[in-house]
Write a structure and sequence with these properties.
The chain is globular, with a radius of gyration of 17 Å. The longest helix has 14 residues. The protein contains 5 helices and 4 strands, in the order ααβααβββα. By secondary structure, it is an alpha+beta fold.
Amino acid sequence: MISLKALTVVLFALTPVAANAETYLLMAEEDGCVWCDKWDEEISHIYPKTAEGRTAPLRRYELHDETPDVAFDSQVHFTPTFILVQDGLEVGRIEGYPGEDFFWGLLGIMFERAKIPLDQTG
């Protein structure tokens, strides 16, 4: 006979944690950042319409003025820096903006490594 504790552990292990986790993409930026402006010009208007944007909505913070409530793996030094956050923890990072084509590929790798499934309902 399976104990209640063992059954609870099994059911918890089978529950998809990522579905309930707060996930977002945090963008560190600063005034005068030309690469931030380039990202805004090329990506910001389409990001919310993508599976990545639905899965991890964009939040921004001013690098020198704010301290987000995130457990960073390391200090942010460059702008833009894109940090994939899940339940207050950094689970991936892109430092700098490598251009539109490379950005999407690197972002996809971050989601894969963090085992965060993309919202395909769009």
